[in-house]
Amino acid sequence: MKGRIKKEAAIQLDRQDELRKFREEFYVQESQIYLDGNSLGLLSKRAEKATLDLLSSWKNYGIDGWTEGEHPWFTFSEALGEKTAPLIGAAKEEVIVTGSITSNLHQMIASFYKPDKTKNKILADELNFPSDIYAIQSQLELKGYDPASHLKKIPSLNGQTLDLDQIKKSITDDTAMILLPSVLYRSGQLLPIKEIVEYAHTKSVIVGFDLAHSIGAVPHQLHEWGVDFAVWCNYKYMNSGPGGTGGLFVHKKHHGKIPGLKGWFGSQKEKQFDMEHTFSPADDAGAYQIGTPHILSSAPLLGSLSLFEEAGMNGLREKSLKQTDFMLQLIEDYLLPYGFKVVTPLVHSERGGHIALEHPEAASICKALKNQRVIPDFRAPNLIRFAPAPFYTSYEELFDAIHILQEVMEKKLYQLYKNTRNVIA
């Protein structure tokens, strides 16, 4: 029988870590173990510099910043889209950095949901993030449909994950569109995107994905898999800052279509300032932009993307899986007596970038951990999420975090706190 993992093993893994140099690129607070990168990634020095550089372009160029300087604002969204594309397996013209995840989702549904008498239902899942459901409900109502009857939800057999056979069974002849998360925000389950798309397309169903919990953590091949559209935020694993500009993907096969929500920044660049009242959409994903680009909210992503270019998604994914494996072993070694249940899939191909633990005292446990300078994430009613970030989380920190959690449970320190969420959980 093998023994428990010792701290020396964590230290040795850090010595062998080929990505350890990137930790110095981030503002990691001393004596704090930050494991909430799947909600908000930490600031990098390059993101800070990029933001200051774009601020300087406003200072130095004024209105001419739209066309002058190292990063002209007029094409900034397209430039960031091109740099993002390799992370998700897309062509550069299939990606644009724009809007927010929810506004982009409204745009995608407005553009691709084309109901008729026989195919008019939208399929989501009962575990989906609320904002995605709100967007679907709104778009159905705008089309004159009752969400109670036209929004179908794939049931979860265990309350935490989705089953591929159940997903396929839910794709019926009246399904017009499917919207699913690539990674379930609660359990961290990674869905089999390729298999879902292949099956849905045999039923002539449009398929879109919310990549909020996978972009920057899991490599994808969206173009090759034939995904119709995808949306995401950039403030989690992409480390672009609170409220950072979102992004969207539209497969080449759909380019040239009129977007559901027209806006002047979706125009062909050479015609945009003709000021005509006839909309001429761009012939790429840029057509789905609505308003003027948020330059200062997009700026941090420029610096962040340079880190991804250096590290490579495959290396980041490899370390992410090693670190979540390491956490799972530590949980088995040290936390089993305290009533925790791992709800994240153990198989690599089914796991995103975080580990989720179920416990009836989850809210109070998270408060106790924060008091001990360990930053987890709580999700109602009873989940604790830990997200090691390959850029800046060390194995030694993971070892220490689990031991601090063991101490919290052993000494019942969580009982000092109410088992209710804070205003922001």
UniProtKB/TrEMBL annotation:
InterPro entries: Kynureninase (IPR010111), PyrdxlP-dep_Trfase (IPR015424), PyrdxlP-dep_Trfase_major (IPR015421), PyrdxlP-dep_Trfase_small (IPR015422)
Domain of life: Bacteria
GO terms classed as biological process: anthranilate metabolic process; L-kynurenine catabolic process; L-tryptophan catabolic process to kynurenine; NAD+ biosynthetic process; quinolinate biosynthetic process
Pfam family, one: KYNU_C
Enzyme class: hydrolase
Cofactor(s) required for function per UniProt: pyridoxal 5'-phosphate
EC number, UniProt record: 3.7.1.3
Pathway: Amino-acid degradation; L-kynurenine degradation; L-alanine and anthranilate from L-kynurenine: step 1/1; Cofactor biosynthesis; NAD(+) biosynthesis; quinolinate from L-kynurenine: step 2/3
Family statement: Belongs to the kynureninase family.
Subunit structure of this chain's protein: Homodimer.
Function: Catalyzes the cleavage of L-kynurenine (L-Kyn) and L-3-hydroxykynurenine (L-3OHKyn) into anthranilic acid (AA) and 3-hydroxyanthranilic acid (3-OHAA), respectively.
Protein name: Kynureninase
Species per Swiss-Prot/TrEMBL record: Jeotgalibacillus proteolyticus
